[in-house]
UniProtKB/TrEMBL annotation:
<feature type="domain" description="Histidine kinase">
    <location>
        <begin position="326"/>
        <end position="540"/>
    </location>
</feature>
<dbReference type="InterPro" id="IPR033463">
    <property type="entry name" value="sCache_3"/>
</dbReference>
<dbReference type="Pfam" id="PF14689">
    <property type="entry name" value="SPOB_a"/>
</dbReference>
<dbReference type="InterPro" id="IPR036890">
    <property type="entry name" value="HATPase_C_sf"/>
</dbReference>
<dbReference type="InterPro" id="IPR039506">
    <property type="entry name" value="SPOB_a"/>
</dbReference>
<dbReference type="Pfam" id="PF17203">
    <property type="entry name" value="sCache_3_2"/>
</dbReference>
<dbReference type="InterPro" id="IPR000014">
    <property type="entry name" value="PAS"/>
</dbReference>
<dbReference type="InterPro" id="IPR050428">
    <property type="entry name" value="TCS_sensor_his_kinase"/>
</dbReference>
<dbReference type="Pfam" id="PF02518">
    <property type="entry name" value="HATPase_c"/>
</dbReference>
<keyword id="KW-0902">Two-component regulatory system</keyword>
<protein>
    <recommendedName>
        <fullName>histidine kinase</fullName>
        <ecNumber>2.7.13.3</ecNumber>
    </recommendedName>
</protein>
<keyword id="KW-0812">Transmembrane</keyword>
<keyword id="KW-0808">Transferase</keyword>
<keyword id="KW-0547">Nucleotide-binding</keyword>
<feature type="transmembrane region" description="Helical">
    <location>
        <begin position="186"/>
        <end position="205"/>
    </location>
</feature>
<dbReference type="InterPro" id="IPR016120">
    <property type="entry name" value="Sig_transdc_His_kin_SpoOB"/>
</dbReference>
<keyword id="KW-0418">Kinase</keyword>
Amino acid sequence: MRYTNKLNPFQHMVKKPKRLETRLIIWVTGLCVLQAVLFGALVYQITAESLHNHMGDKALALATSIASRDDVQSALQTKQGLDELNTQIEHIRELTAASFIVIGDKNTRRIVHPDSDKLGKPMVGGDSKAALRGERYVSIAKGSLGESIRGKVPVLSEQGEVIGLVSVGFLVQSIEPLIRARSAEIMLWGLLLVGLSILAAVYIGQRVRNAIFGLQPDEIARLFSEQDAILNTVRSGIIALDPEGNVRNLNQRACEILGKPTSCIHQPLKLADLLPEHSEFLMHNQQRPIVGFELFAADKRIVLSRYALQVQGQADGILLSMRPADELEYLSQQLTKVQAFAELLRVQTHDYSNKLNLIGALIQMGQTDQAIELIGQESKGSQAQIHHLLERIQDPVLAGLLVGKYHKARELNVILELNPDSLLGSITRKDMLERVVSILGNLIDNAIEAAIRASDTRTPKVRVTVDETSKTLLFDVEDSGFGLGDDKDVIFTPQYSSKSGAEHGIGLYLVKTNLDSCRGSLEIGESDLMGARLSVYIPK
């Protein structure tokens, strides 16, 4: 069996969708043509009506003037001098371009008419009765010469009696050339308007095409649908903001994380409506990226990142992405442990590499006794430090944190010591332990940096004290820096930092956020190390 490829007979009738600019040109041009036609018809109607009224008023005025002539009144009463009167009236008709001037007696028989064959015959049209009753008016009727616009005026005797009437008319067909002349002018202006409309439509189409990056309506619809599907498919909460903090877009996941109904997606919102406690911080310094920032909002811990939006090289707002901390908890814990372990190995490797070089040099110099003594001192000091930490601090996570900070400080030539009076048991609450690690770690890092800044005038030193009561955890971090001075009121604000660099400015803000989440408090004082002392109280 052989198959042939036949074309659909209607295929040639199916056309591809026109481009947007083509549609705009067709729509605008069609609209202008429609407006031109309607406007032309309206103007034609108004012009025709105006000319008719003008001719009617002219006919009525001329009829009134003729009806007041003495020779007309005399001719109607005596029937004499009719030839001379016809001559004079015909002269007036030619001067005024009237189609006809007819004078009839009270029996509507013509005594004056431009056609002499119709003299003495009755007037036709059926519109003379009102004039014989003494009325003045304009009428349109069909007479012996054709349809005309007539001005009808009665002729009165000296006693005020109606003795006849005057009818002045302009044939309708004589007005048509005037109307057509006006119409041609109107059509010319209409065509000019359509031409200008086409040019305007082309210009508008180009501007619209450039504004939407050359995309066609079906492409825009597809991109919008894809964007909506992507936003509501990803597991991260997404919030797009303009530079003033107004919400441009957010997905369903963001509403779930922040505990908001999904109906708010289509409502006008500001960032302060979604994150009231952190909106000021997030809107400050919008060009600076923030990655993996942890905060407490909507009764949960949230990991948030902020990026600046750039449109055509200009700042156009910010983009926030967020996920609940518990979803990232396992991975975060593993990564934290790996990073801490790597940092500890790096510090120890660097430190012991220097010591091995020293030991090797002593052996080469034949100073074996000193080399053996150095090895014993190092082993004894390291073991003593680890033993002291494990003995005073029973929680292995906090002990590991302090060991890591100890080696970090040692690498930076800062003395970090644990107060001998320190004593702390295990922290059973997992969320509490994470917040304590964040608080204590940030305070120790700030203290180390403060001690380094004052190292030119005194020995850099940091002292850590950990303790607890039956209801409260107590932490003291002291340093040998220059102290806080006048910065005490602003150190916990989001934008504060005494250091330069994009990585600074949020450490103490994180301390405050974690303290607020666990209802803790912090006191600032002076240390006997000549620097600052920060005391933390956290209820169990």
